[in-house]
């Protein structure tokens, strides 16, 4: 069997491309090395849809960034994931920084994007009373939004699958070769033949390109640590707060996430290891010292969880998107910030490249843009909850108390593809709250075990190797050997 | 366990108890014994008993029943007494809201989403465990890091084991109990690490849980990094200096597949916050008067939701009082309001209740900040008592007879625990 | 006499009577006779040291498997204390035991465990699921 397109990588880039591709009558498969989509860089980032005032004209990443920005409203309406255009404030601590904000406005005007509003100290105080009293002005950018990036991935891929995409997870690529029959992708489980291969392999995109003989860039991981704060702080700011950027970094931000948890970060540190997702004491210190300057009411005592993500930074510092010297092998690589923002535009751009390279784009008349939106009991009124419970009592059985997630929602997310504790957590928020799963994780494991017909001890945190518990009978087995 | 699930809930109860753990059960008992009935007890687990059901070890009830019971035995004794009274129990039910008119909204697969009017509400939600995130242990985020309480439920109720080789962070009683429990089940426990220079648990547990099994206790030492991408592979531990800063040059690695964190409990106060109760920053629980009444009319609280107890007998005692008081509120027989505020002073981390009155006997619970060998408890200039030995891990209880305050006419009393020269 | 002291054995215990946690020392003569107990601050401490030294005993609380119940494990305990040295062996032997619901609190699950004369009893009711 031969595919028209193989997409390598199920991050937000691959998921967006897959979904966009399904608007056409194309036979496509997405292969992902991990057990779920959206598990790498796409899961562990600031979740910001960057607005116009942060755009530096001239590069591909900012062109696609601004184009992508404007698509998120429609996407979230079609797919039902969490997105809100809450706006951001870049705050100035002195007149020199206010000048810098004016500079940003001129830059916006020159490139024809909304310039934002410059606020004086009174307006800043009125709108964001918890900001530091030392703030003398701010640039308000209304086009900035927050998104749950993993939810975006899950719903993009669900939409793509509904429209005919095949998805293979736990399926790392081992090699790629080209011959007169097109491209051959050897994975751990199968050999796939395809006319086109789209390389959306994120942190490993340079290695995948190398396998295909199309290596002309390298990827360096740049680590970002983020710290999540207790929901008690919900509302401490209502917009994303940026410091004035330095030449090297956008700095440490205060991000009111879509779900109401305040997040602070990120750090930016080049690392060697593409799997180094460790947080560090110095990272925490850096983040909390910077944040205290912006919003003095936040301290490290408010932290409930932390994580690190790796940005896939190419040696060109720009996106690497386009055809290569290997016919049919197309890169969608080096997707770092604003990669999430740009993803919908990157998808359209890649479709354009595929067409140029000879893929016939015959519209798929049966394409359905929407998916059934998952029920979110926490967001319902008591009345709505009562009605729902009357039709299905499982939506009145609470599994996760901190985030108010019901058994009905958990079962639905398993139906939609959750296979692991993390898969369930990122689809339903069960375990994301202040108790960090201490209460609900065993319940979630039980529901996964019952629904998937797997033994309790076979449930993992996030796929192979991440076993959670062992059977009493297995204790005598050799130490270090994972549970079956 | 005896089942007392109700098939039909009434739309109003004189008394609704949120939580059917040790506090909830004693509160319900206190209320019905004082003549308030029927009482509705609501719990999120499939059976009443709360955390007692997973605390299968002995050591409960020494004060209350004068014998050494296991957690499930203690729970069952209470439940058997409860069932002699007019008490409805709604299990598998989560209270999602309590409003200022004391309307309690619960969700449960049996009853759907129901709002019930209560004459008085008793908050007995207990506590939750602090997690890894609360102390920001650097490193990766693999499977195999869990709280000691979750591990306890896993082992004792569900019958699985958390891993093969475990390190325990924190020497609180749950951590010590789990060190023994895992050892008995054949899991290798590499050691218990405590950042403070003194253990946090009872000395009984140090001896019977650690010494008995040669499990090392490392004081002034903490976990500074977690390693392993999918599953815990090892942890780095390091001694800390007087200010609890880790001395990384003296760090060492321990190969293990499991890290249990037992670093303290936090009162579970989501509903208290929804209700806008005044929270004492020292206890992180609602402020209560000498009847266990909170800052909101008709809302009482008891047990770990108010402050973290170290033995269940005190929880029961405090909750019994709360239950009786709630019954008195419902029948409009509340005693006069308190007239003295207690102020935690030297070496007093907190005290509960936060206010007392001159006309009744009171039991005041308090906790010290630092261990003291020979000390003197001083209540303003009206009362003094010598204390033998105080540690933060063991609550001090002070019974105060009304006569003591006869000649006191102020409105605040400071409590100090001062060092005392040996006699 | 100093020379004789050399033959004496000194064992240390941490007193569990109260938070004081006295470090108790038991001095034992050549005939395994207790010569002196030191370090206690009260009579209870002295008694504890003596008992710990001559015949240390412990309660064992653990679980056994159970079939036909809501939970897969049944909590049990030794009815009275057993010699400390037997705790791990007893625990190991109980791993093979499976009870059958219903079980009542106090019901004997294993009689005369390891010939100690002590029964293993259920510590809760476990009705049929």
Describe the structure.
The complex is a heterotrimer of chains A (484), B (423) and C (129). By secondary structure, chain A is α+β, with helices and mostly antiparallel strands. Helices cover 30% and strands 23% of the residues of chain A. In chain A, strands 1, 2, 9, 10, 11, 12, 19 and 20 form an eight-stranded mixed β-sheet that branches. By secondary structure, chain B is of the alpha/beta class. Chain B folds into three domains: 12-128 and 266-330, FAD/NAD(P)-binding domain (3-Layer(bba) Sandwich), CATH 3.50.50; 146-263, FAD/NAD(P)-binding domain, CATH 3.50.50; 340-419, Immunoglobulin-like, CATH 2.60.40. Chain B has helices at residues 22-33, 71-82, 132-135, 148-158, 173-184, 203-210, 270-274, 312-330; strands at 12-18, 39-42, 58-60, 69-70, 87-90, 94-98, 103-108, 112-123, 127-129, 145-147, 160-161, 165-169, 188-193, 217-218, 221-227, 234-239, 252-255, 258-261, 265-267, 279-280, 285-286, 299-301, 340-344, 348-352, 355-356, 362-368, 375-379, 383-387, 396-400, 412-419. Chain C has two domains: 2-54, no CATH class; 61-122, CPE0013-like fold, CATH 3.10.530.10. In chain C, 19% of the residues lie in helices and 33% in strands. In chain C, a hairpin with an 8-residue loop joins strand 1 and strand 2 (23-28). The mean pLDDT of chain C is 90. The chains are: A alpha+beta (484), B alpha/beta (423), C alpha+beta (129). Chains A and B meet through helix 8, strand 18, helix 10 and strand 23 of A and strand 6, strand 7, strand 8, helix 3 and helix 4 of B.
């Amino acid at each position: 069997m031969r595919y028209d397109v193989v997409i390598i990588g199920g991050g937000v880039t691959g998921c967006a491309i897959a979904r966009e591709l399904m608007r056409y009558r194309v036979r496509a498969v997405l292969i992902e090395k991990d057990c779920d989509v959206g598990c790498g860089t796409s899961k562990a980032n600031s979740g910001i849809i960057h607005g116009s005032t942060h755009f530096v004209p001239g590069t591909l990443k900012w062109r696609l960034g601004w184009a992508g920005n404007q698509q998120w409203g429609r996407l979230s309406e079609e797919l039902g994931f969490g997105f809100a255009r809450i706006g951001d404030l870049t705050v100035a601590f002195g007149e020199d920084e206010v000048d810098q904000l004016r500079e940003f406005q001129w830059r916006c005007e020159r490139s024809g994007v909304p310039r934002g509003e410059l606020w004086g100290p009174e307006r800043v105080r009125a709108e964001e009373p918890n900001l530091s009293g030392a703030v003398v002005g701010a640039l308000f950018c209304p086009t900035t939004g927050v998104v749950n990036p993993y939810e975006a991935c899950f719903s993009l891929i669900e939409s793509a699958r509904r429209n005919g995409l095949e998805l293979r997870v736990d399926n790392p690529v081992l090699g790629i070769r080209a011959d007169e029959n097109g491209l051959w992708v050897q994975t751990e489980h199968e050999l796939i033949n395809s006319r086109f291969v789209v390389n959306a392999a994120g942190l490993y995109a340079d290695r995948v390109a190398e396998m295909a003989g199309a290596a002309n860039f390298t990827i360096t991981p740049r680590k970002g640590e983020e710290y999540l704060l207790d929901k008690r702080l919900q509302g401490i700011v209502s917009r994303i707060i940026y410091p004035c950027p330095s030449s090297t970094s956008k700095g440490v931000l205060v991000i009111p996430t879509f779900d109401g948890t305040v997040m602070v970060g990120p750090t930016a540190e080049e690392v060697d290891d593409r799997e180094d997702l460790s947080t560090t004491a110095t990272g925490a210190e850096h983040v909390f010292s910077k944040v205290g300057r912006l919003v003095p009411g936040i301290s490290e005592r408010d932290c409930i969880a932390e994580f690190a993500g790796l940005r896939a930074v190419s040696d060109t510092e720009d996106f690497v998107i386009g055809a290569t010297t290997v016919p049919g092998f197309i890169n969608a690589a080096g997707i770092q910030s604003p990669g999430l923002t740009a993803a919908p535009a990157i998808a359209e751009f890649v479709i354009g490249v595929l067409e140029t390279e000879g893929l016939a784009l015959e519209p798929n008349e049966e394409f359905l843009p929407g998916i059934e939106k998952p029920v979110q009991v926490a967001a319902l009124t008591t009345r709505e909850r009562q009605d729902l419970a009357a039709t299905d009592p499982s939506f009145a059985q609470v599994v996760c108390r901190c985030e108010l997630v019901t058994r009905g929602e958990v079962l639905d997310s398993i139906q939609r593809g959750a296979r692991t504790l993390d898969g369930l957590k990122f689809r339903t928020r069960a375990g994301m709250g202040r108790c960090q799963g201490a209460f609900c994780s065993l319940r979630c494991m039980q529901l996964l075990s019952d629904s998937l017909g797997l033994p309790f001890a076979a449930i993992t945190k996030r796929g192979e190797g991440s076993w959670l518990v062992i059977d009493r009978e297995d204790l005598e087995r050799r130490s270090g050997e994972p549970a079956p | 366990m005896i089942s007392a699930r109700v098939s039909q809930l009434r739309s109003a109860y004189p008394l609704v108890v949120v939580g059917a753990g040790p506090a909830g059960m004693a509160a319900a008992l206190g209320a019905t014994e004082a003549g308030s009935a029927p009482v509705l007890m609501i719990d999120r687990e499939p059976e009443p008993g709360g955390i007692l059901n997973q605390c299968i070890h002995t050591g409960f009830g020494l004060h209350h029943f004068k014998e050494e019971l296991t957690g499930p035995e203690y729970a069952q004794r209470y439940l058997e007494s409860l069932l002699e009274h007019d008490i409805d129990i709604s299990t598998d039910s989560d209270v999602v809201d309590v409003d200022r008119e004391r309307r309690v909204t619960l969700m449960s697969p049996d009853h759907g989403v129901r709002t019930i009017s209560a004459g008085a509400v008793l908050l007995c939600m207990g506590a939750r465990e602090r997690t890894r995130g609360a102390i920001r242990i650097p490193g990766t985020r693999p499977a195999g890091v869990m709280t000691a309480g979750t591990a306890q439920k896993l082992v004792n109720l569900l019958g699985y084991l958390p891993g093969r080789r475990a390190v325990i962070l924190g020497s609180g009683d749950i951590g010590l109990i789990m060190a023994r429990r895992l050892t008995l089940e054949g899991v290798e426990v590499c050691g218990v690490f405590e950042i403070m220079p003194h253990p946090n648990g009872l000395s009984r547990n140090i001896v019977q849980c650690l010494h008995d099994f040669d499990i090392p206790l490392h004081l002034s030492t903490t976990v500074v990094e977690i390693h392993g991408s999918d599953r815990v592979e090892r942890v780095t531990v390091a001694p800390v200096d007087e200010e609890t800063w880790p001395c990384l040059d003296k760090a060492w690695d321990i190969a293990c597949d499991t890290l249990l964190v037992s670093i303290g409990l936090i009162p579970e106060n989501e509903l208290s916050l929804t209700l806008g109760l005044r929270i004492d920053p020292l206890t992180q629980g609602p402020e209560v008067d000498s009847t266990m009444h909170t800052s909101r009319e008709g809302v009482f609280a008891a047990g770990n939701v108010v402050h973290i107890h170290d033995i269940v007998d005190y929880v029961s005692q405090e909750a019994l009082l709360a239950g009786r008081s709630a019954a008195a509120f419902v029948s409009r027989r509340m005693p006069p309001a308190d007239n003295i505020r207690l102020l935690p002073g030297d070496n007093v981390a907190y005290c509960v209740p936060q206010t007392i009155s001159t006309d009744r006997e009171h039991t005041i619970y308090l906790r010290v900040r630092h261990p003291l060998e020979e000390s003197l408890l001083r209540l303003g200039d009206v009362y003094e008592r010598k204390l033998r030995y105080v540690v933060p891990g063991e609550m001090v209880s002070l019974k105060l007879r009304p006569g003591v305050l006869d000649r006191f006419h102020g409105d605040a009393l400071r409590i100090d625990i001062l060092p005392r020269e040996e006699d | 006499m100093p020379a004789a002291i050399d033959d004496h054995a000194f064992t240390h215990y941490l007193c569990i009577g109260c938070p004081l946690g006295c470090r108790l020392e038991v001095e034992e003569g050549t005939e395994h006779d207790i010569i002196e107990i030191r370090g206690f601050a009260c009579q209870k401490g002295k008694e504890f040291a003596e008992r710990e030294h001559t015949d240390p005993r412990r309660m064992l609380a653990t679980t056994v498997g159970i079939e036909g119940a809501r939970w897969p494990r049944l909590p049990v305990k030794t009815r009275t204390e057993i010699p400390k040295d037997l705790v791990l062996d007893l625990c190991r032997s109980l791993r093979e035991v499976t009870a059958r619901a219903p079980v009542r609190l106090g019901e004997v699950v294993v009689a005369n465990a390891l010939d100690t004369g002590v029964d293993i009893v259920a510590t809760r009711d476990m009705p049929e699921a």
